[in-house]
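Box 3.1 A note on notation
Throughout this textbook, protein chains are presented in two layers. The first layer is the amino acid sequence; the second is a token string describing backbone geometry. Keep the layers aligned when reading.
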Amino acid sequence: MDTTIRNIEAELYRKLRARSALTGMTVGEAVSEAMRAYLARPETAKTGSLLDLVPEPFPEGNERVSEEIDAIAYGMESE
């Protein structure tokens, strides 16, 4: 399928063209591969709300780091 894509950053396109040539692909093949990878990612419905944030657990051994930071920043005592 012949398709025109507009408003691609010139530097981004130049790098894509160079890398696709080095790997023996056409620009179209590289773009199709990138689109497949993008569409394979899980879909996330973000609303821009703080509720969209998913907390990550502290690395092991740092479970109380937030309390320690509060103690330093606010002069609060950690248990």
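The radius of gyration is 23 Å. The chain has a mean pLDDT of 85.
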